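Lab manual, section 2.4: Encoding a predicted structure.

Procedure: take the sequence of the chain (322 residues), apply the prediction step described in section 2.3, and record the output as structure tokens. A sample record is shown.
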Amino acid sequence: MRCIASASPSDARVVGRVKRIHAYALKGARSTTLDAAVVRPGGGVPDDRAFALLRAEHAERWRRDGRDVLRAGEGKDPGHHSNKHLFHQLITDGELARVRGRAVGARGLVVECAESGKLLATCADAAIENERAKIEAFFGTLLKGARGAPTLTRADGCSFANVGGRPGEHTLHVNTTASVREAYERTSSWERTGETMEDFARRFRPNLVVEDAGDGALKPFDEFAWCGRDVRFGEVVVRVDEPTIRCPSTRVRCDESGDAGANVDAGARPDVDIRAAFPALEASIFGRDPVALADRGSYFGVYARVVVGGVIRVGDDVALLP
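Recorded output:
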């Protein structure tokens, strides 16, 4: 059996470098960017999707079932929880794109305007009802489709990501700048109304963005060939498990304009257009034989799990291990 941790740097092939690190403290809201992140085996970027807004109509179920609502559905791959509909999401509540969530302290959350950074609401400790109420009242007003004030819910060591809900099942979502550029340029049949490539890239909500290392070697969709392989990010090693299937949440604009998140952009459908523009893409899903992705859905980016922990830093080399 190959020992991942002892793989020599000389055995690895550099395929890029870390350009950005993102943490999305509140499910559906915009991210904060980090210079570095400490990750552990089975864990994700600290505080990523640590909080979610439970819909008012599901509050009683949460009180009854607790974290079990994050369990994987029958027949699903491990780590894929089936209950994201219980929470306010970007696709159903585009207003979330206007705000940024930032974790503070052990159990606190700050909500800021994504454009100006203005403080909008704060909760020092999500375990204290009076503190949670400050956040809940704010979103009860902001989210036009809410049937009542939501309940601020903390994952308590788990994750409200669409995959990797339970402890030990966290994931890192990885995008590359080469693929973003190719998708941006090749899916121009829809009107961008001034959306820049950087704005377009935000639609995909990555944790790690990989850019070319300066040698021109990183090509569009190279990351799909990493599926089933181990990749080193600085001192951290991840196993890339699968390509990321995209849902209509990518239709919500996450740019710096005043219209960001106001509505689902009917003219921009990356979840559909990428599938049509790149029908020949293939990748392995959880170690199985590669499949034609267009036959299954629209895919962009890859999901990876940490197998050797440590620190990932902006500027770190990204290397494919043998």
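Check your result against the sample. The chain has one domain: 9-320.
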